[in-house]
Amino acid sequence: MFIPLHDANTLKHIKVQWVTLALIALNIAVWLLTSLESEQAAQATTVGLGYIPAIAFGHAVLAQGLEIVPEPLTYLTYAFVHTGFWHLAGNMIFLWVFGDNVEDAMGHLRFLIFYLVCAAAGALCHGLLTMTSEAPLVGASGAVSGVVAAYVMLHPRVRVWVLVFFRVPLPLPAFVPLLLWIGQQFFMLAIAPDGDVSWGAHVGGILAGAFLILVLRRPGVPLFDRQIVTPRAVRNDPGAGPAIAAGTDARTAQRFPWGRRKTTTLT
């Protein structure tokens, strides 16, 4: 439906989004390692680290030699495995644009817990809907869906540059594209629950993210903020220009942003 490009939303409590950056780096590293493997080895990695509902719910047993981590850990490890560049890139772009402000609202440690719980919730929801499926679930979008849900509850009015239908760049209030995206996940789950994309994992992540932002955000961090609050250090800077004083970064305000396998379920 759309690709997020940039949001003019400054950090207020942290200097650098270390956890977001580390998660992106880890996902890229895992993808690079698996892309260097042979096709057979890459498939073994997908099976060994992916979440397989039939195994999780006791309907099947993983063949000897394929287990990489204990089965309960696959509720998390699946979220760091991707089957191709565009699968990885799509998830990481969403995490890059929206993850920093959610991390800012929670703090580093709580954001890491938030991300992992959203990943596990996505796997659990997928598993409950497809208990006998032997297709491994891989991809970060269960966790990223939680990040999207948290972001729209924190900053619905922030302007976000999005690339609509891969062609048209538009600056929109965050709630417009993000609520449409969230609605799409529920709609697709209703009409295509058994497709190659796990809409159930997306919905599980969304529900977890919407709940967890209520309990994990910092004391005093509001929900549904009405405007971008400029950090005190910027407000007190006598050299700040009008764009900064109004709550956006002058540097960004002037910048104009411009093979999937059938046997694997993507998230």
Automatic annotation (TrEMBL):
Keywords: Cell inner membrane, Cell membrane, Hydrolase, Membrane, Protease, Transmembrane, Transmembrane helix. InterPro entries: Peptidase_S54_rhomboid_dom, Rhomboid-like_sf. It comes from Rhizobium changzhiense. It is a multi-pass membrane protein. Its main location: membrane. It is found in: Membrane. One of its GO terms (biological process) is proteolysis. Residues 73-218 form the Peptidase S54 rhomboid domain. Gene3D superfamilies: Rhomboid-like (1.20.1540.10). The keyword Protease applies. This is Rhomboid family intramembrane serine protease. It comes from the Bacteria. It holds the Pfam family Rhomboid. The chain crosses the membrane at residues 16-36, 48-69, 75-99, 111-129, 135-154, 161-182, 197-216. GO terms for molecular function: peptidase activity.
